[in-house]
Design a protein that fits this description.
alpha/beta, globular
């Protein structure tokens, strides 16, 4: 509790204009709420805040006249593409995904993959949790839910496309069919800088993109039959209420189980789906409902992890 109060005192400091929320997972929700209520603009790197409580957070931001500035590369790309387009309605957005280390692999292959194999992302260097989410496509599912709230979109306005090179970070299609894409090397420094210096573009010495180094950019349809987490996220977003909170909590426990060799890669989806089926649904949750849903889902998810056949422990 002392730690939570310490964070609260920091984000409400009157000398602070903008708060970068980069805590991992559900833990970022309450500090972000405190910062919004203190009138601080939010540079949002913690996607789970909007996944869990998007309606609550966006309403609070409007109430306190606070900007939500996306830091995720995909949402930063969309945000940048929308600059100057305030009067032009969005037809749809296209969120790109690298496909992770297991792009194109079958369920049979995925049944035996190890944590070390899953942690070898081809393009990005990230923390363990988000790297596993990328490998399972849950990260893309969470980004779909985040985008719905950041940009006030319907479910049918959000597409996902696999783009293995990670050069196009996302795209916006307008009502005339024109598409804007934001491009650059896979490096988080630029979206972080853009959020912290918005609306200015500040000179830097970051490495520049060279078209000759990437002569071919390719795109594929995501395999939601094999990588079921993306479909589960779409289902949760379509259901609304506390359903996204349920999948987020279940996923955090499932990923921890996989990283601890307690759960197989594909079994993570089984845990998440079972939690979605068994947890009570709340159509119009308030903050206490989100907190209780998170707590109770974690208990159920851990019980399911404990009941699953233990994953094999590999040396490599």
């Amino acid at each position: 509790m002392a730690g939570h109060e310490s964070v609260k005192s920091i984000v409400t400091d009157p000398a602070i204009d903008i708060v970068l929320t980069a805590m991992v997972g559900f833990a970022g929700l309450e500090p972000t709420i405190n910062a919004i209520k203190a009138g601080k603009d939010i540079a949002l790197a913690n996607k789970e805040t909007l996944v869990v409580a998007g309606e609550l957070i966006t309403a609070l931001a409007k109430q306190h006249n606070v900007k939500l500035l996306p830091v995720d590369s995909e949402h930063s790309a969309i945000f940048q593409c929308l600059a100057g387009e305030e009067l032009n309605p969005i037809e749809k957005i296209i969120i790109t995904a690298s496909g992770g280390p297991f792009r194109g692999k079958t369920a049979e292959f995925l049944a035996d993959v190890t944590r070390n194999e899953a942690l070898k992302h081809p393009n990005w260097v990230m923390g363990a949790k988000i790297t596993i989410d990328s490998a399972s496509l849950m990260n893309k599912g969470l980004e779909v839910i985040e985008a719905r709230w950041l940009f006030d979109l319907r479910l049918d306005q959000i597409d996902v496309v696999i783009h293995p090179q990670s050069i196009i970070h996302s795209m916006v299609q307008f009502q005339d069919g024109s598409i804007k894409a934001q491009m650059g090397l896979p490096d988080m420094k630029l979206p972080i800088q853009y959020a912290l210096t918005y609306p200015n573009r500040v000179p830097n010495q970051f490495k520049r993109f060279d078209f000759m180094a990437y002569p071919n950019l390719s795109f594929e349809k995501p395999d939601i039959q094999t990588f079921r987490n993306l479909q589960l996220a779409y289902t949760a977003l379509n259901k609304g209420g506390n359903a996204p909170c349920i999948i987020n909590a279940a996923n955090e426990i499932a990923v921890a189980g996989f990283l601890n060799n307690e759960l197989g890669f594909l079994a993570m989806s089984d845990v998440i789906e079972t939690c979605m089926q068994q947890m009570p649904y709340i159509a119009n949750p308030v903050l206490d409902d989100y907190l209780n849903t998170d707590k109770e889902t974690r208990i159920l998810a851990q019980k399911l992890v404990n009941q699953m056949p233990k994953a094999l422990t590999y040396l490599t």
